[in-house]
Design a protein that fits this description.
The structure is a single chain. With 140 residues, the protein is of the alpha+beta class. A four-stranded antiparallel sheet has the order 3-6-1-7, with helices on one face.
């Protein structure tokens, strides 16, 4: 999985508006590709490391034959200055990338052989995230 976008309009961005996380866009709120999905119950931010740990957990649980889709991308840079630096001298460098999450957004989708296996895999993946999530299924 790619860690950050290849080309950006600006090198460093302003902080996102707090109301940005509260907006309700309907485009990413329903599973589109697979039967089972992991959906958020609150707004927040996810880092690349958190997304990658969930991806590894899902891949291990599904094996070679399972299919899964990641529905988010880390596209917002977060900058920070060193601790010992003095005031002024501009904005700090990019320390990590985040993906802003809206309430009700679908994060991961999987196709699995059984309902119990899918719930087990998605429960393990949700335990790695700092936000509350629920499991959504289409067929049952």
């Amino acid at each position: 999985m790619k860690m950050f976008p290849s080309n950006l309009l600006f090198k460093k961005y302003h902080k996102a508006n707090k109301n940005f996380l509260q907006l309700n866009d309907q485009k990413s709120f329903f599973p589109l590709f697979c039967e089972f999905a992991l959906q958020t119950e609150e707004a927040g931010k996810l880092t690349y490391k958190q997304i990658e740990s969930c991806r590894r957990t899902i891949r291990r649980g599904l094996g070679k034959k399972g299919v899964f889709k990641i529905r988010l991308f880390t596209s917002v840079p977060v900058s920070s200055k060193p601790i010992s630096s003095r005031m002024g001298s501009g904005k700090g460098g990019i320390s990590h990338w985040i993906a802003p999450i809206k309430k009700g957004q679908v994060i991961f989708e999987i196709n699995c052989f059984s309902k119990e296996q899918a719930f087990f895999i998605l429960t393990k993946a949700s335990s790695k995230l700092p936000i509350k999530t629920k499991i959504v299924n289409l067929k049952y």
